[in-house]
Design brief:
The protein has about 350 residues and is α/β, with parallel strands linked by helices. It contains 11 helices and 8 strands. It has a 6-stranded parallel beta sheet with strand order 2-3-1-4-5-6, sandwiched between helices. The chain has a two-stranded antiparallel sheet with strand order 7-8. A hairpin with a 5-residue loop joins β7 and β8. α3 crosses α11. It starts with a helix and ends with a helix.
Length: about 350
């Protein structure tokens, strides 16, 4: 335990520097292997944070995701996504050959045809526990889902569905910002993963046949926590991530063993992110992301001072950047991650 405490001791400064207000999530995409669609999930249900949120935050005045320049690439205006364009949910839906599922916020305005692709319950800034008073945690998101069963969605609907369960670091940033003990951090990581297991079991028990949970992305490489020149990652920070991911792998293996089927799958965002960083793009030798850790939107993205002057600077071409802001990938960044994961992901989703 002492070595773990020392290992994570330096995390405090990084966590306290700012909350991961917009959360993290990840997904996986591929534009190939569409012939698998007939055997794959027809509906996508999404639970999580800003890596998956496609517009659930109601108070637009507080959320940067509803402010310029967010959405500058797609749909060319802010849409509630924490990126310049599409996020993980969009790419996963594309892989399944279905439309991006409607957000829970707008469910009452959607016709039956729009509801047939599933629903997105993810809210930026949330975790498995309470991380923001304004956004529902994972348990409440699953409550929302359960309330729709038998009403909007039937058990037969769920038999051909996939759930994406995104847990990406907000619990840890919130815990330490609330003066959580460094010494108890390893124990808290176990609590987060255990609660994730509870959530996975519950979603499966409700009838969802296939459930995907991303591994935690390398938090130490996020621009907010990387070196000031964006040349290197914080390795101590990433040690936390590796501990979380090792526990998550054990949980998924245990659940698959219990269910006697491959109902649960891990999307390996950790290694996919690193592959893109190393290649500076999807493929070896690419130069699409010349400085992968440097965000397109630097500073206090989307905010202006009392005189209306921008408190941020924007790169000329968002497609040249992997990260959009201090925490979130660009649309092009997500596209690259999905391309790296594409083939393996397709196989894991189609397997019964």
């Amino acid at each position: 335990m002492d070595s773990l405490i020392k290992l994570f001791a330096s995390l405090l400064l990084f966590f306290l520097s700012s909350l991961l207000l917009a959360g993290e999530i990840n997904g996986v995409e591929s534009s190939h292997h569409h012939h698998h669609h007939l055997y794959g999930p027809k509906k996508l249900f999404v639970f999580g944070d800003s890596y998956a949120d496609t517009g659930n935050i109601k108070n637009k005045s507080q959320a940067t995701s509803w402010k310029v320049p967010y959405g500058i690439t797609f749909p060319r205006k802010p849409s509630g996504r924490f990126s310049d364009g599409r996020v993980s949910t969009d790419f996963l839906a594309r892989l399944l050959r279905i439309k991006t599922p409607i957000t829970y916020l707008f469910k009452d305005y959607a016709g039956k045809k729009r509801l047939q692709y599933g629903m997105n319950f993810a809210y930026g800034g949330t975790g498995v526990f309470n991380t923001q008073s304004t956004s529902p945690n994972m348990t409440i998101q699953i409550d929302f889902f359960e309330q729709l069963l038998g009403n909007v969605y039937s058990q037969s609907d769920l038999s051909s569905s996939l759930a994406l369960v995104s847990v990406s670091g907000n619990d840890y940033s919130n815990y330490l910002s609330q003066n959580g003990s460094i010494a108890a951090l390893p124990a808290f990581i176990k609590q987060v993963v255990y609660q994730t297991e509870v959530n996975l079991r519950r979603i499966h028990a409700l009838g969802v046949k296939k459930i995907a949970v991303p591994s935690l992305q390398p938090l130490g490489c996020l621009p907010r926590y990387a070196s000031t020149s964006f040349q290197g990652c914080n390795e101590t920070f990433n040690a936390l991530v590796q501990y979380h991911n090792s526990l998550l792998e054990q949980v998924v293996a245990k659940l698959n063993n219990e269910t006697k089927q491959t109902a649960f799958a891990i999307f390996d965002y950790y290694n996919a992110f690193f592959t893109v960083f190393k290649n500076k793009g999807e493929n070896p030798g690419s130069r699409r992301f010349e400085t992968p850790l440097k965000p397109c939107c630097e500073g206090s993205c989307a905010n202006v001072d009392e005189k209306g002057v921008k408190m941020y600077t924007l790169c000329d071409d968002p497609t040249s950047a992997f990260f959009w802001d201090g925490l979130h990938p660009t649309q092009e960044g997500w596209k690259s991650v999905y391309s790296v994961l594409g083939k393996n992901l397709t196989a894991s989703l189609i397997k019964r």
